[in-house]
Amino acid sequence: MRTILVVDDEPMALKLVQSILEKRGFEVLASTSPRQAVKVFEEHGDRIELLISDVVMPEMDGTKLASHLIGLNPDLPVLFMSGFLTESEIADASAIAQYAFIRKPFRPSTLVQAVRKMLTGEDESA
């Protein structure tokens, strides 16, 4: 089973992403706080194959979280998600542009397809 760390400060959004992925057979470690996510990663980092993180969060944004976790595992793929960034903000933010990104709200199939592509490099339909 593939393990994914999902971080979103909005509990409803986090629960939705977790539910979508678990129904598709993924193990999800969920966190509503970037600081908590760091602790989860330090504990389970050897199993975590993908980070999915909201970009805009209090205390630490998703790009800083990703940078920290990549410092612990340079091969960690990252998928950012946000409903607050415009396309031009995404293009201008080099920290985000170098990773995969999906805009909220998204269809479950869009999320699953992005996750599969990140994990396998293949572009499968859900």
Low-confidence stretches: none
Query: What share of the residues lie within helices?
Result: 40-55%
CATH architecture: 3-Layer(aba) Sandwich
State the shape: globular
CATH class: Alpha Beta
Question: What is the CATH superfamily classification?
Answer: Response regulator
Average of per-residue pLDDT values: 89
How many strands? 5
Q: Please give the alpha-carbon distance between the first and last residues.
A: 17 Å
Q: What letter string, H or E per element, gives the SSE order?
A: EHEHEHEHHEH
Main β-sheet: number of strands, strand sense, barrel status?
Answer: 5 strands, parallel
Q: How would you concisely characterize the structure shown here?
A:
This protein has 126 residues and is an alpha/beta fold.
Task: Give an overview in words.
46% of the residues lie in helices and 21% in strands. Helix 2 packs parallel to helix 3. The longest helix has 13 residues. The protein is built from 6 helices and 5 strands; from the N terminus they run βαβαβαβααβα. The protein has one domain: 3-Layer(aba) Sandwich (Rossmann fold). The model has no long low-confidence stretch (mean pLDDT 89). The protein is an alpha/beta fold and 126 residues long. The radius of gyration is 13 Å and the shape is globular. Helix 3 links the parallel strand 3 and strand 4. The chain has a 5-stranded parallel sheet, with helices on both faces.
